[in-house]
Amino acid sequence: MADDYLLRMEGISKHFPGVQALDDVHLSVRAGTVHALMGENGAGKSTLMKVLIGMYHPDAGTVIFDGREVHMTDTATALATGVSMIHQELSPVPYMEVHENIYLGREPRNRLGLIDKNLQVKRTRDLLTRLEIGVNPRTLMRDLSIAQTQMVEIAKAISYDAKLIIMDEPTSAITEREVEHLHRIIRSLRDEGVAIIYITHKMDEVFKISDEVTVFRDGRHVATVPAAELDRNRLITLMVGRELTHLFPKEDAEIGEVLLSVRGVTRKGVVEDITFDLRRGEILGLAGLMGAGRTEVLEAIFGIVKVDAGEVLVKGKRVDLKSPADAIAAGMAMLTEDRKLTGIMGVLSVKENMTVAALPRFSPGGILQKRRMTEACAAQKDALAIKTPSLEQLIKNLSGGNQQKVLVSRWLLTDPDVLLIDEPTRGIDVGAKAEIHRLMSALAKQGKAVLMVSSEMPEIMGMSDRVLVMHEGRITGEFSRADATQENIMKAATGEQKAA
């Protein structure tokens, strides 16, 4: 019955320059349920949610919430109506404390009208305790890990006592233990009658947590199905419009000479005595639990941070890594973990984002060859199937998966020998994941050497020729592709066992 629905969005359309983001879509969500919203990047999921919370105004359609038609003119209206959202891209105020971030703009006041900081801290502590989130309310946001920041954002959304909470990729930056923690929180909220709209690219979560699933494709509604009636293959087919049989299209590549040698790299208290070789044509997976030091190894190799000991050699030649520019000059490239904070430049175009690291290539003698640059970018756009109306489109207007492809293009234009890739498919849909994996495999066949950090076990096992495992800043395991089982990797990741 229609009365069962807390939310009904009907006939919603939204057009951006060159893109029909939503085309007459509908979504109905019952109170006290978890409703998964699935689809590839660019399918329209986040756009619809931004319409719901008043960030975008629809060109057509109606929103009925709790039995009455509503007009979400801005996010404040949405919050007052009873809708809150955890965004995929985290945006904390880094120099504010946790309690200040959670209650920003709605601080409790005393009788004099002044902010009652003690009460605010107490409310934050009570909230974090209720949610079993082990963070001090007085900690600066900049001092939290990405995972802790994610949990604080979740707590903030819950603090509004909303009737409906939108969670956009809430587990993209947290550990498996924290995922289970979040799912306990979600089940508790569901039991209290709260509705959850859950957007994720991790299919296992859909079947664990959701009651119903709605699938979008190319800005249109495809299907709404009870989760119990779906399996992985049917869900993938609904999302991409075809069967996807090769999630990890790893091809055999000729393994050649050593291109990258890391010897005894140490950063006190962070990573210790990191030593390994990476060969031409090889994809070397770097696995480990959150906080093991994987990203820190990449940052040390790429000259982002200063090391206390050790050396890095490219093609047998020692590289003096004072900055990333030195690494780039030596033939290295690095795709960072966080697209928003350390990847894209949102106010610049797709073309400008693609070429920023390779400008010397397009400006011999100091003269910029614009036509050659545009041709190279167009070739990358076609090769990586980047969905954008033009190269002049602002990158911030692209979906997350297409932003990631632009960042890959940026580094390919520098023609590197060694690629350092940190979480290559974080927050990317299943179809785009297969494309990124296919690209990695092709690069290895071309003779590139790839060092890949990933928190996704299937990705590590599916794409790596060899796997290194880290625990507490040290390499505790090394496995061939044949020996890189989930059990072996997890034992090394928890410090229980080292590779022979």
Quick overview of this protein structure:
By secondary structure, the protein is an alpha/beta fold. It has helices spanning 45-52, 75-81, 98-102, 117-130, 146-159, 176-191, 203-209, 232-240, 294-301, 324-329, 339-342, 350-355, 359-362, 370-383, 400-412, 430-445, 457-463, 486-493; strands spanning 5-16, 19-30, 34-38, 60-65, 68-70, 83-86, 164-168, 195-199, 212-217, 220-226, 258-267, 271-279, 283-288, 309-314, 317-318, 332-335, 418-422, 449-453, 466-471, 474-480. The longest helix has 16 residues, at 176-191.
Strand order of the largest sheet: 6-7-8-3-9-10
CATH architecture assignment name of the largest domain = 3-Layer(aba) Sandwich
CATH superfamily of the largest domain: P-loop containing nucleotide triphosphate hydrolases
The structural domain count equals 2
CATH structural class of the largest domain: Alpha Beta
* Count of DSSP strands: 20
Number of helices: 18
Main β sheet profile: 6 strands, mixed
N→C terminal distance: 62 Å
What is the helix content? Answer: 25-40%
The SS-based structural class is: alpha/beta
Give the low-pLDDT segments: none
Overall residue-averaged pLDDT value: 86
Rg calculated over all Cα atoms: 24 Å
